[in-house]
Design goal:
With 80 residues, the chain is mainly alpha-helical. Helices cover 62% and strands 0% of the residues.
Length: 80
Amino acid sequence: MPKKNDAPASFETALSELEQIVTRLESGELPLEDALNEFERGVQLARQGQVKLQQAEQRVQIRLSDTEEAPLTPFAPDVE
């Protein structure tokens, strides 16, 4: 498992770690401080996953465009 502040190697790795965090949080057995740390890591992983999905979507859109020299638009993530 990666260190708490390291970026996961892939989307799949991030998703797997996020699933493990959810399981630990749902168990209700973590002390409050540990639960908060797990929650913060989960939010970080969810954001990283969202960015990776948006980047993949942008790559697909580029590939599906009709012209090879279609203009690229700057990436602007949704802000919540």
